[in-house]
Amino acid sequence: MNTMTTRRKSRIRQRNEDAILKAAEIVFARRGFGAATTAEIAKRAGIPKANLHYYFNTKEDLYTQVLENILGTWLTAADDFNEEQDPKSALENYIRTKIELSRTRPEASKIFAKEIISGAPFLKDHLRGDINPWLEEKGRIFQSWIAQGKMAQVNVPHLFFLIWSMTQTYADFSTQISIVLDKEKLEKKDFETAGDMILSMVFALCNLN
What we know:
Distance between the termini: 61 Å
Helix content: over 70%
Radius of gyration: 20 Å
Number of helices: 10
Number of strands: 0
Oligomer: single chain
C-alpha cells in the first residue's frame, strides 16, 4: 500500500470517527446512555451501523470515548495556566472558554452532568486519574500566585467547582433559563453577559479587580 493510499484511508477513518463522535454526543445527551442506540447514532452520523461497530466495538466503548473527549476538552481549556501568567488573564481566558463551550457544545455538558448524577459509573476512574492530578497542578500554580501577592488566598478546588457550576449551568439548564428569560433559545449575548458576571464574581473573590 503506497503512502498516498495510506493517508487517504487515514483521513477517511478520522472523518468517520469524528462524525460518529459528534452524532453520539447529541444522541447520548438527548437519550441518556441507557436509551441511546448505536443504530440511531449511526443514522445521525450518516453511516451504516456495521461501520460504526468497525470503529467502536460496543456502545460502552463509544460512550467512554465521548466522555474522555469531553473531559479532555475541558482540561485543556486551562493549558495556559502557569506561574508566569497573570492570574487575571488566565482566569478570564479559562472562564470565557468554558462559557463558550456551554454555548457551542451544550450536549457535552449535559452528557457529563447525567454521568455524574448517575454516580459516574464510566468516569469514576478518569476523575481520580485525570482531574485529581489536574487540580493538584493548578493548586500549585495558584499558591505560587498567592505567594507572589498576585491574588488573594482561595480554596482552589472549590474555586473550580464554582466556575464549573456557573459556566455549565448555561448548558445543563438552558431550557429553564430560556423560559425565565422568555426566549425560545439563548442567544450569544446571553452567554457573553453570563461570562462577564462570572468574571466579576471570581475576580472579586480572588481580589483581582
